[in-house]
Amino acid sequence: MAMWQGAMDNRGFQQGSFSSFQNSSSDEDLMDIPATAMDFSMRDDVPPLDREVGEDKSYNGGGIGYSNRIMDFLEEPIPGVGTYDDFNTIDWVREKSRDRDRHREITNKSKESTWALIHSVSDAFSGWLLMLLIGLLSGSLAGLIDISAHWMTDLKEGICTGGFWFNHEHCCWNSDHVTFEERDKCPEWNSWSQLIISTDEGAFAYIVNYFMYVLWALLFAFLAVSLVKVFAPYACGSGIPEIKTILSGFIIRGYLGKWTLVIKTITLVLAVSSGLSLGKEGPLVHVACCCGNILCHCFNKYRKNEAKRREVLSAAAAAGVSVAFGAPIGGVLFSLEEVSYYFPLKTLWRSFFAALVAAFTLRSINPFGNSRLVLFYVEFHTPWHLFELVPFILLGIFGGLWGALFIRTNIAWCRKRKTTQLGKYPVIEVLVVTAITAILAFPNEYTRMSTSELISELFNDCGLLDSSKLCDYENRFNTSKGGELPDRPAGVGVYSAMWQLALTLILKIVITIFTFGMKIPSGLFIPSMAVGAIAGRLLGVGMEQLAYYHQEWTVFNSWCSQGADCITPGLYAMVGAAACLGGVTRMTVSLVVIMFELTGGLEYIVPLMAAAMTSKWVADALGREGIYDAHIRLNGYPFLEAKEEFAHKTLAMDVMKPRRNDPLLTVLTQDSMTVEDVETIISETTYSGFPVVVSRESQRLVGFVLRRDLIISIENARKKQDGVVSTSIIYFTEHSPPLPPYTPPTLKLRNILDLSPFTVTDLTPMEIVVDIFRKLGLRQCLVTHNGRLLGIITKKDVLKHIAQMANQDPDSILFN
To answer: What is the pLDDT of residue 465?
Structure first.
């Protein structure tokens, strides 16, 4: 029977680099990473596991002059064996098995002594302690980011002479010379024109304020992109696509490291303060996951097991959304619905606890001074009518259309950035987009204010004392029943605000396309909500005026009486925000819960559900992928989507490597290869693992050994043992035969051999193979026929096959 060579292709490992086993080797083909996308000096942020394990000092000899022992690595673990290289996929089955073995050993020892029992209890409690620390650190960092961003955003317009550390609102809170109607004006707060030319009136003062606004925006943006480029290239973007990929089992060292955390926290404040059309909510998930990953190193249970660490990261993602929106339950559901790949019940409980602690910590800091966790918290009390489901569904349709439009245009722009010279100049790109945004934003008060403040303004339910232009209605009544204001005719301020909001909507739609994906921290939640909130407020005001002037219409007269508060424009803004966010991210359950926690109104769940589902249906009809999945595919991350069905009738033999005209499969034999033979195979190939067979003639499968484990074991034997030479025989068997005289010592590596690799037959339908890869998180699967090894299928092969079946370019499925 002919043999094949060509399993587990991996171009990421340098050919001939036998001694440098720490270079990336993977079962996924890797492309060269651009300098702006990674920094190899930061790998130590996530050190390889098991480095401190004791060294093996035994060796095996044979024949005259040797100790007549076979070197057996079963005696003590070898440092580095069982760990993974960068840009590699973890073996979920092996990691879970190792954790069960560890837990079983601790449980058995706990019966032997009191100290072992205490160790067992502390091991069980360590997970909850870790969740507590993650919640405290995430909440504290979120509070720091909120306070700093609020202050620096106001710094673009002026400074508080009573204390430069006060933002505009806090500055005027302490003033004795402020009126309720003009509570944002006080002598302690000075605009830049007042400080520079001592006046705030006239065209020249306007130009000075305009210039300072643009200058501060450019300065903040330049600092943000420079810090990211120089110190932590992984700190750019939202981070959620990469976190989804990491949670699925992929390793990107440094992405959740300490430098990334520090730089992302600083640059997130700068990016938000620059006035760009981006939010901090998505990056806060990245920040929380960095906290979780770093704190994992304090606990051996999580530091030494990649699968357990990913359970912690799922809980950290929930804590990140919890502090981003003040929605602990929504955060847990977001982690479950959107980012997590493996989410057992225990992780659900711990995610809830971490989200609770994070929200409590942020509430204790009280960054906005309103005893709320977010700036745009609102409360509505007016009930909605069944007829209003029609405009709510229209908002859902708008959200779906906007989501599909945004994803297509943003992905096209990001692809252009990656494939043209544009990607080589991230600083210039950021400065140009910032300049355009600032120049267009300053003349319009709704684009000049921060996006969170804009959403708060749009969500607001107008009261008698509101001085906003959106609440400039004509008051044609004497009393208000039950403290509620009736529907009123719009005044001049409302009509002016409508035009300004329409221009703001156009600017936000266009500029967000070019902003998301730049080399700075940039979230998408807030810009998407702003687009929907503007559209919703415009529709809400239109419905309100329609109901006021045409109360006799059949659709209104049955439920909207004269002088009643029938329509709440702020509710339409909230529904529109949910619709647009759902259209972009394709969230449903978690989105509705987040919006419900923002408003605190149970009666608005049905409108939110209607809008969220409508937006998802419309967006899915125009494109199946959400924005995060689209960016995962754009970047070529090896992410196997668990939500999609594979319905093609292909077999394992159609996908496995090698194919008919491919080189033969490289295999190791269990008892007939020397150290030199194995080193030659390692240096001449780039595969990340090798099947082990009884003999080349029989091709009967024995097991599977990883390239990294082979390299570490052989190098460890050469350094620590005397007599191991190139002609030493390597045994993967349990017992080795007697050795003739003058034979060099042999090397027994059975303990690094996976004796139960997952196998399928050549006639297994690919539908089942894909399901196995998804549910077990496999790296590779061996293909046999009547017990004889035929080939191998890797996760990369599965992804390529799915892309090919969907008429996509299969070569796009690689990490680039």
So the answer is: 61
Contact 352, 318 (CB under 8 A): yes
Question: What is residue 700's DSSP assignment?
Answer: B
Q: Tell me the C-alpha distance between 798 and 163, whole Å.
A: 61
Q: Is the peptide bond before 744 cis (omega within 30 degrees of 0)?
A: no
Closest CA to 255 of 80, 33, 585: 33
Amino acid at 472: D
Question: Counting every residue, how long is the chain?
Answer: 816
Same topology between domain 132-365 and domain 388-424+462-474+486-634 = yes
| Residue 794: strand pairing partners | 780
pLDDT band (50, 70, 90) for residue 561? low
Residue range 132-365 forms a domain whose CATH class is: mainly alpha
Look at 397 and 47; give whichever has higher pLDDT.
Answer: 397
Q: Is the dihedral of CA 669, 674, 676, 679 positive or negative?
A: positive
Contact of 178 with 185, CB cutoff 8 Å: yes
Structure tokens at 776: 């077990």
Nearest to 611 by CA among 336, 400, 460, 456: 400
Residue 42's CB is within 10 A of a number of other CB atoms, namely 19
**Calpha distance 74→63 (Å, rounded):** 22
Per-residue pLDDT tens for 617-657?
999 999 888 999 999 989 888 888 877 778 788 899 989 98
State percent of the chain over pLDDT 70: 84
* pLDDT for the residue 76: 56
Angle in degrees, CA 696, 701, 703, rounded to 5: 115
pLDDT digits (tens, 9 = 90+) for 22-63: 444 333 332 333 333 333 333 333 333 333 333 333 333 333
Distance, in Å, from the CA atom of 148 to the CA atom of 171, rounded to the nearest integer, reads 15
Helix or strand holding residue 247 (H, E): helix 240-247
The CA-based dihedral angle spanning residues 668, 673, 675, 678, taken in that order and rounded to the nearest 10 degrees: -30
By percentage, how much of the chain surpasses pLDDT 90? 38
Would you list the domain boundaries of the chain? Answer: 132-365, 388-424+462-474+486-634, 652-806
Alpha helical stretches, state H, 685-787 = 707-720, 766-776
Q: CATH classification of 388-424+462-474+486-634, choosing from 3.40.50.300, 1.10.443.10, 4.10.480.10, 1.10.3080.10?
A: 1.10.3080.10
Q: What is the mean pLDDT of residues 800-804?
A: 85
Residues in CB range of 768: below 8 A, 6 or more apart: 760
Q: Is the pLDDT of residue 227 over 60?
A: yes
CATH fit for domain 652-806, picks 3.40.630.40, 3.10.580.20, 3.20.20.140, 3.10.20.30: 3.10.580.20
Are the CB atoms for 628 and 247 separated by under 8 Å? no
The CA-to-CA distance between both ends of the chain, in Å, stands at 38
pLDDT digits (tens, 9 = 90+) for 74-83: 445 666 677 7
How far apart are alpha carbons 366 and 355 in whole angstroms? 16
pLDDT digits (tens, 9 = 90+) for 161-191: 878 888 788 777 766 666 655 666 777 888 8
**Do the bridges between strand 158-160 and strand 189-191 make them parallel or antiparallel, or are there none, so unpaired?**
antiparallel
Among the listed residues 503, 514, 334, 328, the one whose alpha carbon sits nearest the alpha carbon of residue 413 = 514
Order across the sheet with 701-706: list the strands: 668-669, 689-693, 701-706
Q: Rounded to the nearest 10 degrees, what angle do helices 114-155 and 345-365 cross at?
A: 50
Q: Is the dihedral of CA 484, 486, 491, 496 positive or negative?
A: positive
At residue 651, the 3 state secondary structure works out as strand
Query: Whole-angstrom Cα distance, residue 403 to residue 603?
Result: 26
Give whole-number Cα distances, 711 to 27, 694, 732, 749, 767, in Å.
Answer: 16, 21, 15, 11, 35
Cβ of 494: how many Cβ atoms within 10 Å? 22
Instruction: Give the mean model confidence (pLDDT) for residues 355-383.
Output: 80
Count other C-beta atoms under 10 Å from residue 344's C-beta.
Answer: 11
